[in-house]
Amino acid sequence: MTEQTHHATPVVTRFAPSPTGYLHLGNVRTALLNWLFARRHHGRFLLRFEDTDQDRSGQQYMQAIGQDLQWLGLQWDGEVLFQSAHHRQHAGALQRLAESGAAYRCFCSSQQLNLDRKLATSRGLPPRYAGRCRGMSAEEAAARAGHEPFVWRLAVHADAGEVIVPDLLRGDVRFACRDLDDPVVVRSDGSFTFLLPNAIDDAQDGITHVLRGDDHLTNSAYQVWLLQKLGHAVPQYCHHGLLLGADGGKLSKRSGSASVRELREQGLLPQALVQAMARLGHPNMPDAMDIETLIAHFDAASLSTTAVRWSDEAMWRWHERLLHAMPAAQLAERLQGFFPDVSLPRLREFAALVGGNLARIEQAEEYRRLLQPDAQITDTAILSEAGREFFEQALALWQDGEHADWAAWTQALKAASGRKGRALFMPLRLALTGAAHGPEMRAVVDFLGAEGVGLRLQDVIGRLEA
To answer: Which CATH class is domain 87-186?
Structure first.
């Protein structure tokens, strides 16, 4: 199936999280796919908090989710929306459904419901609601409601008829009403479940497309049913395969489900998460690093209908690629927190030197000696093995003025010390950079200059004297 690239009405998608925790990877995928679809079709992407659970919803989570979306570059259009602002519309929709017989009160206890499910299962039937309260008159239901707890259910189950869910990936998904349940839409405490408010909000907000996991496919059937009962337009759905952990199980801390907040604290570049996530279940995405390419080639109809596995390794590989491609001036700004006493111009030179050797920004700490002549050295045993005399020879040859570049200097030192290969070059690399691996040494010498090289050799000689 090929996704339509032109739409009769402007595309409007949404990300509608419950603000009961921090943004995690499953949330990110939902937000990203809806954002990409909207941008691909020059539409609008809305942020709506489903905040009707007042006991669990937190202002701090709303703020954090908004900040994480902006950090990822997933800017929404217009003001932030709140499900709680539509309470009157939710209540009105329920009343209309009840008046038409499409919703009814159910007084069955949890014990009765469990008994009915067990009985159905023992007969080889699906554990659906038995329909005990469905035929109750409105007068009897109203009278019992004054002194008995009850829930509201949708009267979906029927011997005939079907519900058709329009889906970009799967075509028209047909549900026979006899296979559907009478789902609860209002709990006994008077609070709405997910089904009705989510669907009514989509209608109120003019949502044209809903991209979400295939675990919502049956929910969509119920929502299509109630939207049609109320005379609302039905959005186009796209039920893609679920996001699983690296081990194939449900996303968890162990399988890579860190919160976006935690990834930010780890120094992850936001586009690394976006790039890795956009390619999951989307096999034809070009191997480019700019967001414009992701938007231009995003095709919702090409998304995988099967589950996909998350990979922290893939995300961090994108981080490394983006880090290596980052301009030195931009990298220098990120390095200021590690080296607050170093001037920005010097940090730019440092970034240009070591940027290609970093897999993560914090690894720049390993090259602190390039900025501070007395900074730590990773392997002092190699310095000791080379010996004080070797470094004194190296310093003397460097200072004689005849060996002012790396090639001439090391050639002369090779002749004077009798060392060659790793035995010659590794002690010098450690002495000058502090690390066993890193930038090309000609560039290191140019960066340090005559005085910088001399200071670091003198520091090593002093250490070996001690």
So the answer is: alpha beta
- Distance, in Å, from the CA atom of 107 to the CA atom of 444, rounded to the nearest integer, reads 79
Distance CA 79, CA 47 (A): 8
Neighbours of 27 (CB within 10 A): 20
Q: Is the pLDDT of residue 299 over 70?
A: yes
CB-based contacts of 79, cutoff 8 Å, min separation 6 = none
Domain ranges (residues) in the chain: 12-83+193-242, 87-186, 373-465
H or E element, residue 112: helix 110-122
The answer regarding whether domain 373-465 maps to CATH 1.10.10.350 reads yes
Contact status, residue 227 vs residue 233, Cβ threshold 8 Å: yes
181 CB contacts (<8 Å, ≥6 apart)?
128, 129, 156, 157
Whole-angstrom distance, CA of residue 224 vs CA of residue 230: 10
pLDDT-derived band at 286, boundaries 50, 70, 90: confident
The CA distance from 275 to 360, in Å, is: 16
Q: Distance between CA 286 and CA 38 in Å, rounded? A: 19
Burial 354-371 (b: 16+ CB within 10 A, else e): bbebbeebeebebbbbbb
Q: What is the pLDDT of residue 8?
A: 65
CATH label, 12-83+193-242, candidates 3.40.50.300, 3.40.50.880, 2.60.40.10, 3.40.50.620: 3.40.50.620
Q: Is the pLDDT assigned to residue 254 strictly greater than 80?
A: no
Per-residue pLDDT, 385: 95
| DSSP H/E element including 330 | helix 328-335
Residue-level pLDDT at 219: 97
